[in-house]
Amino acid sequence: MEKNNQLYERFKEQIEGVNAECYRVAEAGEISNLLTGILQSKGVRTISLYESPLSQAGKIQEKLTAAGFEVHTDGLLEATAQDDAGITEVNWGIAELGTLVQIAPEVDNRLCSTLVPIHVALLKTTSILPELDDMLAAIHNLPQIPGFVGFITGPSRSSDIERILEIGVHGPKQVIVIFVDK
Questions:
Q1: Which CATH architecture describes the domain 2-180?
Q2: Nearest of 81, 84, 89, 58 to residue 69 by alpha carbon
Q3: Exposure string (b/e) for 79-102, b if CB count within 10 Å is 16 or more?
Q4: pLDDT for 74-103, tens place per residue?
Q5: 104-114, pLDDT tens digit by residue?
């Protein structure tokens, strides 16, 4: 557990350094309570949710709907283009970089992390790897190399035009990471 704490603290420091938010809960059942407060404070009303083991364990759809949010789990191609936030579960975090790694061959999963203004990423604390090499080894050891692997390091940023930094041009303006211990 001490190693998980150290990796979490390192990851948190790195991702907050690129203007993302990082939180941690003990178990999946606590995700919705934390999310409700965060999303209400940001004025979120509509959410695209790509169902995953963590979202189902935390009953996120039911709890956020009960809290007054409009939650979409179907028709995500249309919903993500208009919703205020998207929620996905990602596969790994890389502590040295503060980077999330998302294996997402499903288009709906990618839409919920890229097309919305706010991306909420759920991740098990035990899935934080120390370095990029560890994550590449993990992918190499999979039964099949995935068709899509995305790396997410904070909000979308670009400084292509006149070297002026713009946030959210090619993806979410805000990234929120919630780690779950159990």
A1: 3-Layer(aba) Sandwich (3.40)
A2: 84
A3: bbeebbbbbbbbbbbbbbbbbbbb
A4: 999 999 999 999 999 999 999 999 999 999
A5: 888 898 889 88
